[in-house]
Amino acid sequence: MALGFPLYIDLSGNNCVVFGGGDFAYRRTIALLRFGAKVTVISPILEEPMRTLDQAEKIRYIPRKYYRGDCTSAYLCVAATEDEALNITISDECKAKGIPINVSKPAAFGTFIFPTIALTDKISVSVAGKVEEFVLENIRDAIEAQLPKLLEEAEKISKL
């Protein structure tokens, strides 16, 4: 997938559906929650971090496998199951309905990529690229550490 155009959308209160209960699904769920999405997770099982979100009632959990039609009311979806054929099937449904879809594997079947996000209460910066995820996370961490200082300096300059 080519580097995409960064498009910021308002997820506040919108229903996002994540298929899968593992680590990849968890990371995507956390990102969606940080932006105010209502997240529904559909998966036969949840691994520990995702189970914690369910117990804290941060997500709506439906303990079953995917069924055609599960994407219908979604603002966007994430196909993060261990089954590549199933991820492609979910992607096909989303594409037919015009619903943005992020796919873990094979990623090329998704219509958007998830950036790594540096976030404060005033600003967000997304980082995406054709490098390993841990490299993007290191870059994000460095940016996030500098954001308060950069924002303060920018606000001072704007008052001159």
Topology (elements, then pairings):
Layout: E1 15-19, H1 23-34, E2 38-42, H2 48-55, E3 60-62, E4 76-79, H3 84-97, E5 101-103, E6 116-119, E7 124-127, H4 133-158
Parallel strand pairs: 1-2, 1-4, 2-3, 4-5
Antiparallel strand pairs: 6-7
Query: What series of H and E elements makes up the topology?
Result: EHEHEEHEEEH
Radius of gyration: 17 Å
Query: What is the residue-mean pLDDT, rounded to a whole number?
Result: 94
The side-by-side strand order for the widest beta sheet comes to: 3-2-1-4-5
Q: Could you name the CATH homologous superfamily of the largest domain?
A: NAD(P)-binding Rossmann-like Domain
Strand content: 15-25%
Q: Can you walk me through this structure?
A:
The chain has 160 residues and is an alpha/beta fold. The chain folds into two domains: 15-114, NAD(P)-binding Rossmann-like Domain (Rossmann fold), CATH 3.40.50.720; 117-158, no CATH class. The protein contains four helices and seven strands; from the N terminus they run βαβαββαβββα. Helix 2 (48-55) links the parallel strand 2 (38-42) and strand 3. It is globular, with a radius of gyration of 17 Å. The mean pLDDT is 94.
Summarize the structure.
With 160 residues, the chain is α/β, with parallel strands linked by helices.
Question: Which short descriptors sum up this protein?
Answer:
160 residues, alpha/beta, 4 helices, 7 strands, 2 domains, two-stranded antiparallel ribbon, Rossmann fold
